[in-house]
């Protein structure tokens, strides 16, 4: 899946001054889960390549191998038309602030290269970095406990992008298991008649005056599952087992 | 934020046989970021409490402190009306498979307790665990690189729930026909035990070797209707009628 619409390149993920190689690896893994492959690093603290990134990427090596390194954020996003900066909500920001969902919708709708920029683990993006972006992404989070780490912020943005990219490209939709359709009505009726036919001689519907209501209740209840033909057959097997046994007993008694 | 609509409790997060305390901590952190606080643990490998959970929770201690421990998944979800099992896509599953988004929409719309169940880090949920759930959640993921860890799966579900809970609470709810919620799991289990207990002595499950598969088929089939407590009671009435009759016959025979 994750095939974006034609001419809409997937966003580039830009990590600004990331501290731990481990977190770069985790971000790569988060990206690739949702089909993002282009990573750019701005002045990674411990240089690049970083041997501790690989193990944390859990196989997303292709992302790390093609990661590009820049000295400044301005250079890293120079070829991008839409730059989104992720931050926690800040006062005094004079740019539009959107959710990851709204950003994803905008990214897949704009046939030009986008970048989503993430700050260092501890401090987040500084004001000058944010100034480069046109739009701010803020994850709507528990006001009393906001503690998203770098890879989590990346995965939420990648996930939303993937959702929108696949929706908009009208391609293979997320997995909806192919379920069998409900059994045709006559099969259901056969099962229902078998059940009520067993209950009738046992006095289940007495007093007679309440029978119509009880029948309606049972019918409602057994139409609810919308059992497919295999399930109807299974239910009939159950009933036959119970009824057959009774017949044996009756014959012997 | 994360104010769910009135009478819609946030879902309980159930971790089945989690291996590392660290991952339990990370799951707690992921939950609290999006306002989820109720965690249940089924047979955590290293017991509970686990000293390595706290540091990974990054302050989400309130979740860990109130975590409840159970021996089996059945017990852990006994009081839940809607049980969702998270899995990667599997063949031969005969339950509805939904995205985290669709599950979140359903959860906030249903005024009854939901649970979202996650399997062990390596193996995921086994077939018997999945059989307990009514619905499967699968994150639509890169088909060539699916590598979500436990906390990432949790955060995506928590994030979607939070999005839907806040969206919906911001609105005046349209009048929805008041349907009874599905019966709690323990009522369902009682009914199911009654049915299988009747079928067993009649040889329904023979040959013995096929019994686990047959049991799973039946469980899947009877979880499908999501019967409410009145319907469960009706089904038990039906079974009792059939069984009682047999007992009379048996006594007389």
Write the layout of secondary structure elements.
2 copies of one chain form a homodimer.
Chain A: E1 12-16, H1 21-33, E2 39-42, H2 53-57, H3 61-65, E3 68-70, H4 73-76, E4 82-86, E5 97-98, H5 100-109, E6 114-118, H6 127-132, E7 135-137, H7 150-168, H8 185-199, H9 211-223, H10 229-252
Parallel strand pairs in A: 1-2, 1-6, 2-3, 4-6, 4-7, 5-7
Helix pairs in contact in A: 1-7, 5-7, 8-10
Would you mind describing this structure in some detail?
With 253 residues, chain A is α/β, with parallel strands linked by helices. Chain A has two domains: 12-169, Alpha/beta knot, CATH 3.40.1280; 185-252. In chain A, 45% of the residues lie in helices and 11% in strands. The first copy, chain A, is built from ten helices and seven strands. Chain A has a seven-stranded parallel sheet. In chain A, β1 (12-16), α1 and β2 (39-42) form a beta-alpha-beta unit. In chain A, α8 runs parallel beside α10 (229-252). The longest helix of chain A is centred in the C-terminal third of the chain and has 24 residues, at 229-252. The radius of gyration of chain A is 30 Å and the shape is elongated. The termini of chain A are far apart. Mean pLDDT of chain A is 84; it is low at 1-5 and 168-178. At the A-B interface, α1, α7, α8, α9 and α10 of A face α1, β5, α7, α8 and α9 of B.
